[in-house]
Amino acid sequence: MNTKPSIESISFIGLGLIGMSLLRALRSTPIAVEAGIIFSGFDPSFTEADIEEAGMLGLDQFIEDREELFSADVVVLAAPVLTNIALLDEAARLSPPTTIIADVSSTKGDIFKRAQELNLPYFGLHPMAGKELQGFRESSPDLFKEMPIFLCHDHKLPYKGRGLILRKMIESIAGSLVTSNPILHDQIMARVSHLPQLMSTLLIDYCSSQLRVSGPGFASLTRLAGSPWEIWHDIIGTNNKNIADAIEEFAMKLVELSWEVRDIDNESLESRFDEANRLHKYMQLPGWRT
Description:
6-PGluconate_DH-like_C_sf; 11 helices; oxidoreductase; 6-phosphogluconate dehydrogenase C-terminal fold; 52% helix; prephenate dehydrogenase (NAD+) activity; elongated; single chain; Prephenate dehydrogenase; Rossmann fold; alpha/beta; NAD+ binding
């Protein structure tokens, strides 16, 4: 008799860009194909037409019954951050003790703390991938290719049983798997993700009266301005201190830069450009993330 742990079912709550892309990517892994894993999901915004289209993209079952959803071997919470945190209470009531509760929230501090309070087997994921356009129709199984995925986990969960299987599946779809504690994760995200978003949002507003004469460089720099507030409301609300600290630190850098420009301090300005050029070239190298 085979008593080895296995994953036979994975359910997703939230079937937007990230949730559906992750479903499609995991479905294509050799582990999922060999095991015949069933992928189910739910999204409160879905119409009958959406359900049918999602089925063609890889969703095996659209399930509205909460107990059935939470009874899967792995449950992936792919809603906005605050919704995911609230869903942990449902998971604690409805999920079997062996069910792994994963999420793809962009911040990890608050949700990690709540999962610990509820004593849930928690597997916190944050794929460093996305688009300014949202929705399952924008999803792609290749969205995470060559991109890092953060993992904030509960003790030894990713190294045994179903946790090990899930980790191997994630590793097979990502460029790299980066293990981090939730506090450090949120500090890093404030700099490399949340600050760029708010800079883009502020810049396009600052230049609103000159948009018609802007060029492609401006369009590239303000690409993130298309991101929806519905997503960022929760991100800012759960990482506000780190984001505010990053903004204040960067604002001081801007003031220093303004002094150099005003004084035509070419030596300092050239040094900044040289370092920026070096870092940009480094990011173009094959495998630079590894």
